[in-house]
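Continuing the series of single-chain predictions for the mutant panel. This is the parent chain; the variants come on the following pages.
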Amino acid sequence: MRVVSLVPSLTEAIAVSLPGVLVGATDWCSHPADLDVTRVGGTKNPKLDPILALAPDLVVANEEENREPDLTALREAGVEVLVTEVRDVPQAFRELDRVLDACGASVRPRWLDEAERAWTELPLPERRLTAVVPVWRRPWMVLGRDTFAGDVLSRLGVDHAYATHAERYPRVTLDELRAAEPELVVLPDEPYRFTAADGPEAFPGLPCALVSGRHLTWYGPSLAEAPRVLAEALRAALR
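Parent structure:
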């Protein structure tokens, strides 16, 4: 089996679970750290010729991260493309099972069982907080409706202010974000790399949680430790 992954979190899931199956991945596929495969460009601009040169049996993609014209071009070239959709935590586990099965897994990896257990046995939050969750700056963009990261935070007791917005990643002015009067601002380090020196200063007087974007937005082996890592970051901001 020869697989090319166009989704960083799925790259990690496949590489950890099925060593040797993955032959290509995007430039943004940073995990595992020792991943040694052919790089085929970005998630939004994959290089089709290098992908085809790898003669993959399967290309793994995602409806949000990858563009339909690129996936159509691969299909027209005779490549099988599996497109995932992940909008919440339960769907992430279903899609991971589907991807690994398509890649030839004969048994479910232990990390996936551990991850599902971690989220299934998650205790109810002691209290709920309202938050805004910027994912980009210049212009400001936030989590909106129907997102995996939004569901992750909700399960940890954080309700984000734009969960019912018409768009999934709306552009919102800074004045509007402040006017939402959140109790907390959640700042991930990807896709925009918010840091202690870049982000919190825009929200004076509000607690800001700097969180790992991988644990907030990736659906792969990081899911097993995500509840603990994210909960610790949220608690640290509220001390």
